[in-house]
Amino acid sequence: MRMPVIFAGHGSPMNAIEDNRWSRGFAALADDLPMPRAILAISAHWWVEGTLLTGDEQPKTIHDFHGFPEALYEISYPAPGAPALAQRVAQLLGSAGAALSTDWGLDHGTWSVLKWMYPEAGVPVVQLSMDRRLAPAEHFAIGQRLAPLRDDGVLVFGSGNIVHNLRDAFQRMRTDHPDTPDWARRYDEAVREALAQHDHDALVAAWPGSEDGRRSHPMPDHWLPLLYCAGASDGGDAVRFPVEGFDWGSLSMRCVRFG
To answer: Is the pTM of this model over 0.90?
Structure first.
């Protein structure tokens, strides 16, 4: 069976340890998925100069945040790596020049969601970096090259947020009931419509091509994983949105399933 593609709006690291609507939504992402042979994860938090793949037999759990409760730093997600899959991805990417690395691991963009989807951590995971020097269309093209993995039982999994303006969110979370600004709702809905219509041209142009897009993403790190997922999808995939809504006022927690 061809594997679907999943994009998760991961939001705060606290979702890894809290029982809330977002963590319950993450767990439900796996409910009707075929069991993957392995997972290729593209996280907002590995945005560097270069296209890299974790090549470890046992990738480490990275706690790439600060100022949170100690319980969050005690989490380990001991999923095995898959060096053979990493080599396969490097071959698929070809001229993109992907290289294996042991300097990273699984960051919270990956494990804060996968710990709910696959709590036993038994599915091998490889993480793919995003090259900060590339244009959005080039990130989308890399996603297209990943599509054959779906026929090999590999779950292509992206993790970021469709709207991610932390400065705005931190200001709003100081109130008991933070409102969601109009620009965030408009952008989230425009992206939803582009995904539902398989309008990849509109999706690739959405950032930084619109004022709402630039306000939604002062930096593109949380936006780009969605382009990899959309690239790995095709026009025959049904597009569903199993999780929707905003946290902290202006963090879109929308999750997307292709196929």
So the answer is: yes
Q: Quick: pLDDT tens for 8-35.
A: 999 999 999 999 999 999 999 999 999 9
Supply the DSSP symbol for 176.
Answer: S
Count of the separate structural domains present in the chain: 1
- Among candidate residues 241, 258, 248, the one with its CA nearest the CA of residue 25: 241
Question: Which residue from 62, 69, 24, 27 is spatially nearest to 43, judged by alpha carbons?
Answer: 62
* Residue ranges making up the domain that contains 148: 5-258
Tokens (6 digits) for 36: 């993957």
CATH number at residue 123: 3.40.830.10
What H or E segment, with its residue span, contains residue 234? none
- Output the CA–CA distances (angstroms, integers) from residue 58 to 43, 76, 106, 198, in the order listed: 18, 12, 10, 37
Burial (0-12, 13-18, 19+ Cβ within 10 Å), 60: middle
- Closest of 127, 121, 80, 123 to residue 103, by C-alpha: 127
Provide φ and ψ at 22, rounded to 5°.
-75, -45
User: What amino acid is encoded at 144 in this protein?
Assistant: Q
What is the tens place of the pLDDT at every residue in 201-230?
999 999 999 999 999 999 999 999 999 999
